[in-house]
User: Fold these one by one.
Assistant:
Number 1:
Amino acid sequence: MKLNQPHQFFDIENPDLINFTNNVVGNETNPQEKAKLLYYAVRDQFLYNPFLIHFSDQENKASHLLKVGSGHCIAKASFLCCCLRIADIPAKLGMAKVRNHMGTAKLEEILQSDVLVPHGYTEVFLNGKWIKCTPAFNKQLCQKLGTHPLDWDGETDSIFHEYDREGGKFMEYLEDYGTFDDFPVEMAKALMQKEYPHLFEHNGKFLLHELLTK
């Protein structure tokens, strides 16, 4: 696949997504600086909401984040991928399994686990190498949870919320599933069905949103 072409979910031809990217980048021409501007814009302008998980085509379009203003880690990582590609910077979506030691009680109650699957990050090609970054956790959320927001310099990986402010374990990566040119929805669903079978009926119907209203 060519990263500068539209894909099923990475709709880089969307005019609102293009406008967002251009407004953030402005007159900046240096790829590393453009990438950093986009990273911080996506990290903090859209709130992280782990409950906004969907499997419909329209809701998994990267541009959908602009309509709702908040999203799951994969939605934010996918959105950043598209912005970077619009800015002529190659980028891919990464997915992993992580253990979150400071997840909300509501999230752990519903998942029946402190393991989050899949967790999304972005891989960016800058200065001749691929670099990882995680735009999921906005600054306000990090302050609330007692950890520092993940900064990114455009030169080194930034994926580990390894410790909170008191030095306690915050998040650890258990498995990396690799990177993808587009969001592999069926793979994400299969990973969730394996990790959280109670969230699905036998026919594959996703029950998360019904559980949230109980």
Number 2:
Amino acid sequence: MEKKLRVGILGATGMVGQRFISLLEDHPWFQVVTVAASARSAGKTYEEAVGDRWKMTSPMPEAVKKLVVMNVAEVEKVASTVDFVFSAVDMTKDEIRAIEEAYAKTETPVVSNNSAHRWTPDVPMVIPEINPEHFAVIPFQRKRLGTTRGFVAVKPNCSIQSYTPALTAWKEFEPYEVVATTYQAISGAGKTFKDWPEMAENIIPYIGGEEEKSEQEPLRIWGTLEGGVIVKAKEPVITCQCIRVPVLNGHTAAVFVKFRKKPSKEQLIEKLVSFKGLPQELNLPSAPEQFIQYMEEDNRPQVTLDVDFGKGMGVSIGRLREDTVYDWKFVGLSHNTVRGAAGGAVLCAELLTEQGYITHK
């Protein structure tokens, strides 16, 4: 790309906003030119606004330190400075829906990490390796919004990334019933151990709203575009429990599956390791070369060893074995703030750019 696209980060001071900032440092296509946050941060430099709340392990990129934070509510002003925005705002769902559509109506594409628009029928919710064809709903959304360039696209919940790719790879064997338990990192709540000390040596068996997302969002990912809206798939039926565990980064899932067509272990593993999508074929900048890796060791995948596979954009599967009640069971692992949040949104933006949905203003 001759000239980089100008990017704004909405909600730039929060944990996912910070992850966007760190992932976009030295990005070959995108350059962060605008950071926006709440009125209390507006007018300060990004470095001042974040203060001692920088939560990434890598240092704050020099290029953003002196950027003056804009007020995210000043939509026209922010939008005038960028080609598109990533959204990681911390507001109520109604407020998020309203502000993301307001940005879209300024003819500014919005690629969102938020959940507010995940069930808006004409908003694509995409894992780029799995359902890139859902971007074809964007012209219908533009018609509703009255835009020619602006739209909203979202990525799904972080918790489903550790098992949805495997189930997709096994689609031809017709999985129809799934039981999953996810063991979710504290960064999924925007926290570190420093600001959530009570999570050390603790497990909390409840994460608000997470189980419904984990059960329903894969069905929308596997849905079809019909009459200008995405219609969710009917199966596999998924039931899920979501548990918060004392891990900083990395969501693990323990999953049981029933198949209509009975595959062998060798067939299942082969489908995992050979599975790839458009990001791999197009060699997009953030795409992992290997989307899913299978690990033969009994004690893998492990968070400390495997969460950064593919720079945090890959998915690790292990412990695939026959079950006495279900057909097969396995353990999955994905990085919740890279693949599951900011990185997944960056990959969506790369594919949207490659397909001509995001362009220079």
Number 3:
Amino acid sequence: MASLLHLASLPLPHHQSLPSLSPSSSSNTPSTSASATADFSRIQKLYPSFHRGRNCSLKKGLICRSSSSEVTFIEPPESKASKDDLIGSLKLKLLSAVSGLNRGLAASEDDLRKAEAAAKELESAGGLVDLSGDLDKLQGRWKLIYSSAFSSRTLGGSRPGPPTGRLLPITLGQVFQRIDIFSKDFDNIVELELGAPWPLPPIEVTATLAHKFELIGSSKIKITFEKTTVKTTGNLSQLPPLDLPRLPDSLRPPSDTRSGEFEVTYLDSDTRITRGDRDELRVFVIS
């Protein structure tokens, strides 16, 4: 019964204390056995849920396993429900931080810091992402709800792109990523509204930037650009799609903008966080 000393660390009701156990309490003499039996009876009165010979629950989340000769304690397993609650709370915090920022186009420096901090908390709670065995989690159509690079006020983010505002009458609509893990297709789909001279209505188009992707590591993805297709929508939806011609190799800029890499830093069934090769933070939700 020497292991009963472990109970000394537990809070006792009404400021009571456990019976003291002498060093000789581990012997098997009749007097010691009778004393140990009395001690056990007193412990049962203090902790009615404590019983000899079966599992039982004690205060402060400790789990007791006892037999006629010993009492041991183990820490309870981590509660899955509590982790799910934490993840849910951090996801809500991130979504709240990026809401109302027009996918990052309206983000201030303070907004960028808040979004970055909320994303790091969720990434830390979710742990490392390993796509080598869970590539199917990427499958689907994802909606972009935030990009830190859009705060640069260009539609290309950190890469070259048309500016927004008064210089060009371009209004950014929804942005999606369509990923097919079987064909390795990785399409960035951008909805745009192009201004037209009065009294003509704006022209609505959807631009699809088609890529192929490959996994290069446990969580890093490389995409290679193939072509851009533009399709009118709205009043001009009857027009056929148009594939934009690619520039000859001799006319392309020195930097290869046809490919890029990014890392998936958080992923579950409905939320994805990525960090690009140009320090771009992106947040997606399943669409």
Number 4:
Amino acid sequence: MSTVDFQSRFKTVRQSVPSSTPPFQLACNTYTRIAPSQTNESTPPMIFTHANGFHKEIWEPVIARMSPRWTSGPMYAFDCRNQGDSAVLNKDVLEQTFDWYMYAYDILKIVDTFGLKKTIGVGHRVASVPVPCTFSAIVAVDPTNFPREIYMNLPLEDHPMGQLTLKRRDSWKSKVEAKANLLQKKFFKVWHPEALDSYVEYGMVDVVNADGSTGVTLKCPKFQEAITFAHVGTGLHDSFEGMAKLDIPVHLLVGEISDIKQVNAHSLMVQMKFDLLKNGKLDVVKGAGHLLTLEKPQESADLISAFLDRAWTPEAEEPPKARL
């Protein structure tokens, strides 16, 4: 589905809202389906969170393919404070470090700003940080919350993922050149075309270079993505320890060939914590890696919709409080 097709089916309101810690701002999209659902059921609001180095619009290919039942209510997707359009808004106040707890409080700020109730959280980070807010269900996409001893507490100059990020290309003469270049990379070749289009269209910004020439660069500065990798352990081990306490429906959606799984930490998490969840469901997206929603949006949307069909009950007057 192209951007034009998506816009013909969903109304998008783009706005900025205060973060949990001023002066940072959060760029947030609100999506509402233009054609109403045929069901009379009330649909809970949904919050979508993106993976490190990406942006809110990356969820649009999945949203477009989800069951109308689950996309008939308000949906919110926002950019982490140092990435996407939030990075552009906050360019003058970005810091030299990153605290994942702040991302958690920013999710709570979105909930409070829009007065959301019985919220369903979907994303790479919803269950990857100690989220101090109330959810009625969680869809955790290949989450990286592991025991404390798994994390590499290394300075940025010694962190392998951080260093790889700093070395990669982040500017091009145009979006056309950028897309052509990315399609030559193994990492991007496995993405669904719509996901790559979204990355190019919404993840890049026009710039004027020092010599007066024009071009495009990533909205998320390489340094910000790198320090987010380097500080990935802040808070994630806390959410790992708290997983067994959740008594709401939790969907663990993982990639069959995810590099997270290949280091055995992923399977350790499943064995130690996920099996203890009272209302947990594990689904594996065949042939997909860590960024499974970008590679296989249809399969991801089908599994998320099916899980919510089984797990979420609108009759529940007061959902359990999920505090990771």
